[in-house]
Amino acid sequence: MVRTLISTARQLALKIASYGVMHLIVAILVAFAITRDWRLALAVGVVEPIFQTIAYSIHDRVWHRIERRGTLSGVEEASEAFTARLGVMDPAEQSRAHGHHGHGHHGHSHALPRSLKQIALKSVTYGLMHFTVAVLVAYALTRDIRIALTIGLLEPLVQTVFFTIHDRVWTALEARKARRAADLAEA
């Protein structure tokens, strides 16, 4: 049980950290391409990802709730989300809790959108959230609305592409882990 808790906490920390590193690199490069000033690019690149990582964590939790909405009661959802997040539920319990008997679903629903439409909507909401944070941070650092809007428009577009790739990679990793757990449970 303790190993499972540590492993799950480590995986969540790695997901958030990998997002933060990816975001940092892209933010610095985009800010430099716009301003041609390394000091300003580094300031935007360091400060903006801190706020974006916080916003990303909130976005991820909101989408987890949206993906689960209507399938369980509040108490059931909280219990399922907690045990699934900690990896306490085995794959059969996770499938039963989600009502996906034999439909190719493995693991809990966290960050596992069920349709292309949902993936697109999740990416669009991420882009809008990202735009807002990027403009606010860029304006606070530059006091120039044109630069802030340019950074706010371009940087989130680039980040949204990378976010979608990041999210799909982590979804695949989580699904692979759930399949391995299911295979081990069957053996």
Could you explain the architecture of this structure?
With 187 residues, the protein is mainly α. The chain is 82% helix and 0% strand. The chain has six helices and no strands.
Total strand segments? 0
C-alpha Rg, in Å? 19 Å
Give the CA-CA distance, first to last residue: 20 Å
Helix content: over 70%
Oligomer: single chain
Q: Could you list some keywords that capture this structure?
A:
82% helix; 187 residues; elongated; mainly alpha
Provide a brief overview of the structure.
By secondary structure, this protein is mainly α. The protein has helices spanning about 1-35, 40-70, 75-85, 90-100, 115-140, 145-185.
Summarize the helices and strands and which ones pair or pack:
Elements: H1 2-35, H2 38-68, H3 74-85, H4 91-98, H5 116-142, H6 145-186
Helix pairs in contact: 1-2, 1-6, 2-5, 5-6
